[in-house]
Amino acid sequence: MTSERQRVDRESPDGNGDAPATRTIRVLYVDEADPPAALSDGSDVSVSAVSTAAAARDRLATDGDVDCVVSEYDLPETDGLALLEAVRHDHPNLPFVLYTGSGSEAVASEAVGMGATDYLRKADGGDRLRERVGRAVAAASVETDSGVSGDRLRELTNAFPDVAFVIDETGQYLEVLSGPGTADLRTVEQERLVGKHLHDAFPDEQADRFLALIRTTLETGGVETIEYEADTAAGTRWFEGRTAPLGDTIDGRQAVVWVARDVTERRENERRLAESRDALTRLSRINALIHRIVQSLVGSATREEIERTVCEELANSEFYQFAWIGGPWVKDERMHPETVVGVDRGDVERLVEATQAKSPGDNALARVVRESESVVVSDVDRSDALSEREREIMVDIGMSSAVLVPLTYGNTNYGVLGISGACTGAYSDRELTALETLGEIVAFAINAVKNRKLLLSDTAVELEFEVDSPKSGFCRLSSELGARFALEGVVPIREDKLLEYVAVEGASASTVVDRLADYGVLEGSRVVTDDGDECLLELDLAWSGVDRLVKAGTVVKSAVAEDGTVRYVAEASSDVNVRDVVDSFRTIYPDADLVSKQEVDRPVDTDQEFRQTLRRDLTEKQRTALQAAYFAGYYEYPRESTGEEVADSLDISSPTLHQHLRAAQRKLVGTFLDG
């Protein structure tokens, strides 16, 4: 077989000559059974069949125009290995494939050792045989043209982790070398590339670029590198191509070795690394933005100033389009944008209205407020969480992504912060955490402003509610037991929990605790004192009127239940939206009555007035004991003086000292907390 028959020439090296012609591979098939149909499927393989080794030898002796021998191992009067030995004696470079249904690993090993080009089981099928025959003939062609032995080519092929090609200066494939792990990286059937050109395997623009690279390699004599994308059996992959001169000419033409390494995973890793770097840079700049916002909030005198500052900073940043803040959720399930920056207020109002028109379970604003969870829409066009009306409005406004963040501090929700992202895919977990932290800080600042107004103002709004409902556990208990319940105080224990201290008259502690547990509102309890019909209980309730009023931003002054009715008295700052407080309270007691709303004076006590109150309440002995203990370092840690040492200095017994101190401390703490 000559290189003239194997190669397809073109009139010009740039691929603008005649269309390539396909050469037919002649196969001599030796087997009593018929050759598989797939072997000769098409015009490029011609099969001649004989049934014995003797007939095969005669055919080869009289007709040397055979490109490959395919033989069964189990032949009449002999076997395929004997035929292989005879063929190698007379035709040392003729490809020989042992294709058998009765072989074994031992036979395969012996066949390869005797010089078989390939070994294949019949169970692998005719398509695989056709592929192996093409590969064997292609290898023999390069061996003939370049002088490289077939054994050496097979060693190189098995050693290569990548796909490699021998390509001449016209862009014609002379050989394909592929390692055992590269089967899925084919752009076309590799063996069929031999004799074809780059323009047969790639689009013209890409093939022209490859041909220019080959010519540069031959001109410089060095190694050239290129990265390119190609469609393969494993999908679209990226390759790094390295070209080097072959060194010898083939049929008068120079050639290169082109090694194609699959670098898809490396590029993907580089892409992820770049995205990670970009994400870290973005997060760092967002954190700096939030830090600047927090600094701007220091000293804000009103809620309106806080909201305006936050929305302006966010809307004017490079990361977000606009921002808005909506007020607290109320009973009629309607939220109104209070502050809007970066977009027309009407656009946000339309979007809020569309969201609130959805069912409670799908209403994102309700979820943010009730569950204190952020809602993220990373891609407006693709999000399944949006109604068509919401999506239509968001696209009309030009929104790509959005997030809703709760403004919650402790037990109180102050509304929602809405932010429109400048691109899709925004709001990574860490960015969302940063924005949620901002939401908490904003809520804290709003709470601080309200408390400051309440503490420093000489007036406040006092609200009195009356509840007469079986839904209230204390309404039922006061009626059924004839008992009286009075709130002594509340202590926050978690962001969403209060401990309530309730004084009980006319019922035992165990009876009250058991009944509250039966009602399903009791999550924890402790009996502080129990004197029969009078006791003090520490209660952790799943929900209560006191808890709801605190969450609405008020200070509960009293709560008393008797004769089946509970009366709550709460104070709020003078600028409070009373409707919001009432609607919030009615979410748990829908029939509650607001029986009184009045402005009350709140005289501000000075430090001097506070001391005068203590002097009036403390006895001389209590004040003396407290002063001596303080100046003697009794309250330091570690103590500088023991109780016994302070008692000795006052010439009283230790129990007497501790009795005076406990009484004085209780009055001191009571004056502070009740003032």
Q: Could you give a quick summary of the protein structure above?
A:
The chain is an alpha+beta fold and 675 residues long.
Helix content: 40-55%
What is the chains' assembly state? single chain
**DSSP, total strands:** 25
What is the number of helical segments per DSSP (H or I, 4+ residues)?
22
CATH class of the largest domain: Alpha Beta
Total count of domains: 5
Rg over C-alpha atoms, rounded to the nearest angstrom: 45 Å
Task: Identify the overall geometry.
Answer: elongated
Structural class: alpha+beta
Uncertain residue segments: 1-21, 155-161, 179-191
Q: CATH superfamily of the largest domain, called what?
A: GAF domain
CATH architecture of the largest domain: 2-Layer Sandwich
Arithmetic mean pLDDT: 81
How would you sum up the major sheet?
A: 8 strands, antiparallel
Q: How far apart lie the N and C ends? A: 110 Å
CATH T-level topology of the largest domain = Beta-Lactamase
> In order across it, which strands form the biggest sheet?
21-22-20-19-23-24-18-25
Query: Strand portion, in percent?
Result: 25-35%
